[in-house]
Amino acid sequence: MFGAPQRGTLMRLVHATVAAVVLALSTLALPASAPPPPVHGALSHIRVGLVFDVGGRGDKSFNDAAFEGIDRARRELGIVMEMLEPSGAEDREAALRLFAARGFDLVVGVGFIFSADINVVARDFPSAKFACVDYAPPRDGNIPQNLRGLSFREEEGSFLVGVVAGSQTSSRQVGFVGGMDIPLIHRFELGYRAGVLAVCPDCRVHVTYAGTTPDAFRDPARGEAIATSQISAGADILYHAAGMTGHGVFEAAHDLGAKAIGVDSDQYDEMPGTVLTSMVKRVDVAVYDAISSTAQGAFRAGMTSFGVADGGIGYVSEGPHALGILAETRVKVAEFAGRIESGAVRVPSVK
Questions:
Q1: Are residues 52 and 128 in the same domain?
Q2: What is the domain range of residue 37?
Q3: What is the pTM of this model?
Q4: CA–CA separation, 7 vs 82, rounded Å?
Q5: Is residue 8 over pLDDT 60?
């Protein structure tokens, strides 16, 4: 989908008002991507800074979807965009602070891992506005008044692809490969398992997580090893929610004659003929919506949730990338999607 971003070091800030930020960043090497040519328009004075999640741009998944959202805002609204890709955990807060200190109109953190950092930075820059994809609110529920949390009901989309897997497995065994073992990824697992069992009550769902640190999202070798083990145990369709680790799942499925299900965006092109479908999480829609409302003076703080009913969650069901899905399977999924929308089916999200 997109190539790796050009990298460079951060330019020193010369304004006295951000001298402290310069000092804090002087020992860091945050790679930055060169912004695309600006599109001149009524909103060309609006500046948006986006900080990528683990794995960075080019992951063919979560981060690329966020990029599509900000790039759409550039094309359609004419905003000015800049992006940073932290090289380590210590760089996340610094990157957020950099954009805020430079007076950007909106600062976006991509991924739950930014939650604690963005809380701190938002409170330190009360006049700036922030948005965080997959934001996890503080336990006390005290969300900064200048922060919009963007969340998704991933369990709903995972349920739908679970129906696909449960309907089309030949071995009556399927697999789930998670990235980091955390509540967010548990939602994918629980939804998938529920979808499989809704149409195949006696199916077995193999579940393995790649690790307990953010590195679990960028370890294709680990993903391939897990997938190989699950396929050897009998699983013939594997769903991953593991970022770049999922590339290894695709490799193993291809080599061993199994099918795989992608996540976050349409991942068919990662392994044509092997990727059966993908659970689509419209991160691009969420990011664009946050930018658009901010640019038009209608920023909304607090939580915004996206699911099947509002088109924020779905799966690849049409076109050449969904040719492997049987017609009767599509009918089943459509029926369950309608029941989820109506509330007749409540998909589990907590272990």
A1: yes
A2: 16-152+283-306
A3: 0.81
A4: 12
A5: no
